[in-house]
User: Fold this.
Amino acid sequence: MVYFRYTRNRNSRDHGRANWPQTRLPRSFSLNVLPTPPEGRQMSASQPARTFSWHNLGDLQLGRPNLGPMAPVMAYRLMQFSLWDALIGELGLEKANDLFRRAGNMAGRELCQNLLDKELPISEFIAQLQKVLKEQLIGLMRMESVDLETMQFTMTIAEDLDCSGLPCTSEIVCQYDEGFIAGIFEEYTGKIFHVMETDCWASGARVCRFSAKVIGDTGL
Assistant:
């Protein structure tokens, strides 16, 4: 079971996390920090910071011949919510949420590039996306509305990996999913999407509902 330490704030979309106790010692934080090289080995000054790609996931069949590629939701959420808490303690709520959306966006783009066919018509692409999200145990997606002229979508995700089963706190908690969905559709369309969660398990709904709309062009 997952427990949160924040104070409920029914009028805030940002989870009331501004009221979390700030007990951590200051630590330096950088998005582009390189790993410390082993003792006696110097890292080249020209070596670039690592950039996330599908390749970073590694060879799961080789690395997990007995346990397999899937992990319990509990393990995923232990990492997700502890990381979120640490980022909030270091950077504040707004910045932490932005970073989670950014990470989700990168993941969505990589998933689209590697598991989806970007050449499919939109209806077939959405059907394939539904299938992949179910196969990967991410959630059960259903499109509620699609306006191809304005490129606005409304969709729900049931049994969402991030939040299904969480305590009801009248709040929205799926910022990572917002970025993830945006990244998928940005990679597919070449347009910039704004995605907002409007209903969440943690807000009392039994599905996550997202609205998505185009706000620009990526230049892809």
The longest strand covers residues 208-217.
